[in-house]
Design a protein that fits this description.
Length: 193
């Protein structure tokens, strides 16, 4: 399921607020080596242990909670959010399945339009079977069954010079043991800096 969920002005303001957040590159452990990603990220809510080097989650902020409430009105409850910033098209995310068997994955896209691919793993490689644009202000919902069957990626797009931010919410059947809750909703949820 894929659709535009935010008015253009809302999406622009949200993008400015998110892109200004303090995010750090990820360290991905693969083939016994650590790789530093061009992508930057920060987690909120429940810890999402997708990699041995994954960062710990921060407490929900009012900004991320405000987005979560709107997403939950479509998906039902979620446990955590991973905000990822792609400074330009040289940053992407390779073929993977989301770890921990999430029941649902919902990803809000803001900023530069990028593409999203679904693929079938065959032996050591992955063959793309579907590709779609991720438009500014759109929400992509991936049911757990699709994540279990197909891999997905945001491929590198060298012609894209502008940044993109995604906020990916996940619901896990078994709530991760380590989780932080408690948004403060008493002030402007998403001040743009
Ligand atoms: O940035 C995105 O929209 C997708 C991110 C993603 O594939 C993931 O967090 O597993």
């Amino acid at each position: 399921m894929h659709g535009r969920v935010r008015r253009a002005e809302d999406a622009n303001e949200l993008f400015r607020a998110l892109v200004a957040m303090d995010m750090a590159p990820e360290v991905i452990r693969m083939y016994g080596r650590n790789f530093i990603t061009k992508r930057r990220s920060i987690q909120f809510g429940a810890d999402y242990d997708y990699n041995a080097t994954a960062k710990r989650a921060e407490e929900w902020t009012s900004c991320i909670s405000a987005i979560r409430e709107r997403v939950e009105s479509v998906t039902g409850p979620v446990n955590g959010a991973l905000v990822q910033s792609y400074p330009d098209g040289k940053a992407g995310i390779g073929w993977h399945r989301d770890a921990g068997q999430p029941e649902v994955i919902a990803s809000l896209s803001l900023g530069a339009q990028r593409e999203f691919g679904f693929g079938v793993a065959t032996g050591g490689s992955c063959k793309e079977v579907w590709r779609m644009p991720l438009k500014h202000g759109s929400l992509l919902i991936i049911p757990g069954t699709v994540n279990g069957t197909l891999k997905h990626r945001v491929p590198v797009a060298r012609l894209v010079k502008e940044p993109r931010v995604s906020v990916t919410f996940r619901r896990f059947a078994k709530r991760p043991s380590s989780s932080v809750i408690g948004p403060d909703l008493n002030h402007d949820p998403c001040p743009a800096r």
